[in-house]
Amino acid sequence: MENKKAVVIGAGISGLCAAVELKRKGFDVTLLERENHVGGVIDTFEKNGFRAESGSNSVMIQTQKTLDFLESIGLKDKIDTATPVSKKRFFVRYGKARAVPMNPINLLFTRLFTLCGKIRLFFEPFIKKFSPDSEPSVAEFITKRMGKDVLDYAINPFMAGVYGGNPEKLSVKHAFPPFWNLEQKYGSIIKGAIKSMKEKKATGNFFKPVMISFENGMKTLINALSDELKGCVKKNVKVISVDFTADGWEVSWGNNIEDVCEHYEVVVVAIPAPDVVKLALPGSISTRLSVLSEIQYAPVTTYTLGFKRNTIAHKLDGFGVLTPEKENLSILGSLFVSSVFKNRAPEGFTTLTNYIGGMRHPDYASKTQEEIENLVMLDIKKLLGVNSDPVFKKMYYWKNAIPQYNLGYQKYLDTLDEIEKDFPNISFIGSYRGGVGVSACIENALKTAEKIAKNSKGE
Length: 459
Known about the structure:
Blueprint lengths: L4 E5 L3 H12 L3 E5 L11 E4 L2 E4 L5 E3 L2 H12 L3 E3 L8 E4 L2 E4 L4 H6 L5 H7 L16 H9 L1 H15 L9 H4 L1 H10 L2 H15 L6 E5 L4 H10 L4 E2 L3 E8 L2 E7 L4 E6 L1 E4 L3 H6 L4 H7 L7 E12 L11 E3 L8 E5 L1 H4 L8 E9 L11 H16 L7 E12 L6 H13 L3 E3 L9 H19 L3
Parallel strand pairs: 1-2, 1-14, 2-10, 7-16, 14-20
Antiparallel strand pairs: 3-4, 5-9, 6-9, 7-8, 11-12, 12-13, 15-18, 15-19, 16-17, 17-18
């Protein structure tokens, strides 16, 4: 009996992982990619001993399942675990990078928060929780539970680092679910964090998250996934149409040389929301998916700069520095990449990956390289004491970098759930659904493949 055929549209991290898992579960997989390379926003650039990532610099592994998957594709000995200094983070206040307090003693003495802000934070366990039917913004939620000081100088820069987003618009349920779930279950974020950790340890269901990259950068992950899919990937192709039939799907795709029409039992759509809307799906599905055009994406430019280490005053003894909106800086943050992972710069040099744009300054992301460099240099000179010109530069611009999980986001998720219920053999995955991080994309792709495999067996 022939294997069932599955087509995956889009060879970013979500599509690659879904395709690998479907292949392992016995499907005859075809992976279609419109570009001449796979990996989407993930790639690594190397020159003269410097290394720059086009998108994410790391993967925060949240589950054993994800770690097992990475090891199963031959990456066990290529994983580069973040150095201990990565646990230290910096946020800006009064124009200086200040260490985020990691314990109550540090909290008492930090200048990141005012005295009133610290006192207000200690009242968090006594604040009444939100109604489960409500949908507060991140700003509303944090202000009520922890106070305005924490919002402005901790959560605001954190949201900029994760989403490039605006806490006033982001939905806490979707953009910051751990905090919402702790509050709803335990009535307090602080008490909930302590209790949930104790419960997980007691049941043996405790996995300590770990930040990783790979020996030769993030492209190592993409190469490993590609190796698993040899013969399955079609690059430089355009999907012409996707039509529903009585027993599956007819998918037409092609390039400048030929057009192909194939029958598949399963379709996985793994492209960004703006591209999903443009995909030539059956009218009944396409009409319902038109709502996805409302999803906002933050534009972001990543600009990695290399310097002689002795020309930077800051110790760079942490993961990086994120900037609150109130500090009126141009960058969203600067990551101390060569402090966190090895082989990111030659001996005696260091690399800083700077992020600019987001929903805070969306127009900044599309400025010229010279304009962006001027903005970045002005900020890192002030924050980190950089006193030389860069000896290495690499810039990437992403118009649709990060989907914004804003208020009302549930309607998009409901639409996708309803379509998949009505058409069980089509699935939609990507950073606009279930989390924007690399780890979330991997986990959701694996879950989707597992669900498809069960449905195909009638389980």
